[in-house]
Design brief:
alpha/beta; Protein-Tyrosine Phosphatase, Chain A; five-stranded mixed β-sheet
Amino acid sequence: MNVKTRIIPLAGVKNFRDMGGYHAQDGRRMRWGQVFRSGHLADMTDDCGTEVLARDIETVIDFRSDAEKKRHPVHWPGGWIPDYHPVPIGGNAAAWVKELYERLAITDFVARDLREQFILAFETIPIANQAGLKQFFDALIDDHKGNAVLFHCTAGKDRTGIAGALLMRALCISDDQIMEDFLLTNKAVDLENISATIAEWLSAKASQPIAPSDVFPLVGVEADFLRASYRAIDDTYGSVEHYLETALGVDAQRRHTLQDMFLK
């Protein structure tokens, strides 16, 4: 599958992607133009509003915290007023950057510590935020009107990545394809330039050279991040399937409903 089909340039929105085309175990595929994922929508232009209207995106699920929404409020452009679901989920790169920036005043930067912070976050998010992830699935299943849905956080890679992976597991998409979608962030964002900008900013703060590769977790993702989430779920619930059913309320009937909505 050409990744350019999934990665959609959208003015003012980073990491905007169509999740269509992935194969389910029963031979069906995820519908094109039905499930989208992205970073925050605060910088949308009027042209962007026209595009999302044309894509029939009616449901928007926002994983950002109240503080994130206050920093980057959304003003729906071009008459687009979606069915908006605020579903705060803890753990975001913006908060970690702020914390890292403050720590650099008194301690050295250690790239390993930053990566371990993200591993810990991916272990914590699905366990500590069961209520929010359940709301995500409830919105998909109970509030779906037949139009397209978009879910997002700030960068569209961590919380959004976990939610996307869980959705794909509920749709019986293979692990290889789930990982493919998760890692697509690294092609959808300008890793080189964004990492260089952050590294330069942190280097000035720390009065020490920080390489762009050292701040990669703030911009991109790696397979071990998602594996950390799976590991935490398996340790706590025995399996992702049991977690979906018992923690998120996606039992066999609701799973079939979800599959009929988003598979073709």
